[in-house]
Amino acid sequence: MQNTLEFYNKMTKDKVLDKKIKCFSCNAEIPDIESDVHRYMDSSPGCWHLFEQILEKEYADTQYWKNHRITVDAYAVQHYGKPSPRATQSVNLHLASLFLIYEKGYDLTIAYRGLTTLANYKSELFWLDPPKNVGNITVADIIKVQSAKEHGNLVYEWGNSVWNTWSNHHHTIKEFVEGHIKEIY
């Protein structure tokens, strides 16, 4: 499989991905392509395509894997979908993971354990109205990085940016997590 950055650069150089549009969910400037998207996270096909390329890089190279938990959380929350049981669970649980990382200072292993533990309480979750701006860092920024260190740092900032944009719901997420914290840690 071709290196993600090489693929992206080749596609851009070949002008296959030259036409850009804004993702209707995260507002990233992304390739205007037709492609599959996630079944309950709402994104433009080009945005989902870039996310898949980032995941490919993280899965293929352990140096890029460091902040994978945050990559998934940030993208899922930026592409919150429409009110439905699956989208409601996704947003709440990924916000809970970001809370554990950025507010509680837990490492990513504990954040993952928290997310999976809290999934047992999905009946307690409800739709959270998304903010108008879901963060200033997007997949379009992450895909451009040139090194694993830069990738890790920018992904960490991405997650923090996304967490902060949902500040209207921080109290709700905190109450939910704190209600089950003894099962997580």
Care to describe what's here?
With 185 residues, the chain is mainly alpha-helical. It has one domain. Helices cover 57% and strands 3% of the residues. The protein has a two-stranded antiparallel sheet with strand order 1-2. Helix 4 crosses helix 5. About 4% of the residues have low confidence.
Primary descriptors:
10 helices, single chain, mainly alpha, globular, 57% helix
How many domains? The number is: 1
Number of helices: 10
Helical proportion, percent range = 55-70%
Strand portion: under 5%
| Number of distinct beta strands | 2
The major beta sheet can be summarized as:
2 strands, antiparallel
- Major sheet: arrangement of strands: 1-2
Rg (C-alpha, Å)? 16 Å
Could you name the ranges where pLDDT drops below 50 across 5 or more consecutive residues? 10-16
The whole-number mean of residue pLDDT values reads 88
Task: Please write the string of helix (H) and strand (E) elements.
Answer: HEEHHHHHHHHH
Distance between the termini: 39 Å
Query: Outline, from the CA principal axes?
Result: globular
What class would the helix/strand composition place it in? mainly alpha
